[in-house]
Amino acid sequence: MKLSIIVPFYNMAADGKLDFCMESLVRQTVRDYEILAVDDCSLDNTYERLLSYEKKYPGKVRALRTPENRKQGGARNLGLEHARGEWVGFMDGDDWAAPDMYEKLLTKAEETGADVAGCDLHETHVHNMEIGRIVNANTMDQTGLLDGEKYKKLMLNPCSMVIKIYKREIIERYHLRFPEGIFYEDNCAGPVWMLHFTRFEKVEEPLYYYYQDTSSTTHSISEEKCRDRMRAGKLLVEQCRRYGFYEPYRQELEFAFAKLYYVNTLFTYMIGVRYPQIRFLRELKQGILQEFPNFQNNCYFIDTYDREQKKLVRLHMKSDLLFLVYYKTLIGYRKLRQKWKESHKL
């Protein structure tokens, strides 16, 4: 079999989301492929809907179910255990694909001898096949035969895993899998996986539809999700040590960890959690300093973040309480100023 497409679903039966995703997959122009539709122990009738697709498309759709909720990483791992394709692709259950997405990815890989191939994507808020806001994913200077410099760029910016297909032989050779039971699992798996492949090529077209729904679980912020991001950061470091990537790409790993574990978590926590806690801010600071105490001197950190962001980080390093008070005051002032501007426009 040429290709296995693995798609986790969790409580997706309502509003036609599951159907829109599955309809885009069963109508792919590529030949000789299978869809492994994995219900992650949903509380609605998601599994029954997937079984109906399996019955309607025998040999093309296989419905699987996790025994307990394992988040997307666990559902993807279950799919990998059952995959038969020479290539493996992943999709999120509320997204969908252009009809020729996988045909174009496979053609690009086979024509170039790549063992991983990707494309661009576009964001959309509506369920249709119109092109939304195009997001240019991986850059062309990350493609071709992979060497040290390209691996560094891929460590810094691996981009989404759902816009790629991977040679399954390499996945199984190194037993590449996803972290289970947490959100942000691909933030850990993405860079680690790319360091195992030898040639990456890209189709410069937006073939993947990334659905942006502000009510979905990926867009709501909680302390639990912030902790999952921290866990993903720690797992990234652990896996780089395990596979021997820690020392060759230490600078890049330091920045990737600081961004994932600390900076993104710090600011999303402060913005999204209604009542930020000193204990969490202290734990977050201790975690980054324990792993990479000099992260503020990292060249990528210096070049990436602006003056205000670095000022806020320095303040947090100095005092959790001062940071909390200053940040909440700053945000409150900016909200009042915005309201004043809007009132004076009327």
What order do the helices and strands come in, and which of them pair?
Blueprint: E1 3-9, H1 17-26, E2 33-39, H2 46-56, E3 61-65, H3 71-82, E4 87-90, E5 96-97, H4 101-112, E6 116-124, E7 133-135, E8 144-145, H5 148-156, E9 164-167, H6 168-173, H7 185-194, E10 199-211, H8 223-242, H9 250-272, H10 278-291, H11 299-304, H12 307-318, H13 320-345
Unreliable residue runs: none
Q: Please identify the structural class as seen in this structure.
A: alpha/beta
**How many strands?**
10
Helix content: 40-55%
Q: Can you tell me the overall shape? A: globular
Cα(first) to Cα(last) distance is 63 Å
What is the overall number of helices? 13
Radius of gyration: 21 Å
Order of helices and strands: EHEHEHEEHEEEHEHHEHHHHHH
**Largest sheet composition:** 10 strands, mixed
Polypeptide structure, described:
This protein is α/β, with parallel strands linked by helices. The protein has 13 helices and ten strands. Strands 1, 2, 3, 4, 5, 6, 7, 8, 9 and 10 form a ten-stranded mixed β-sheet that branches. Helix 2 (46-56) links the parallel strand 2 and strand 3. Helix 12 (307-318) runs antiparallel to helix 13 (320-345). The longest helix is centred in the C-terminal third of the chain and has 26 residues, at 320-345. The radius of gyration is 21 Å and the shape is globular.
Task: List its traits.
globular, alpha/beta, 16% strand, ten-stranded mixed beta sheet, 10 strands, 346 residues
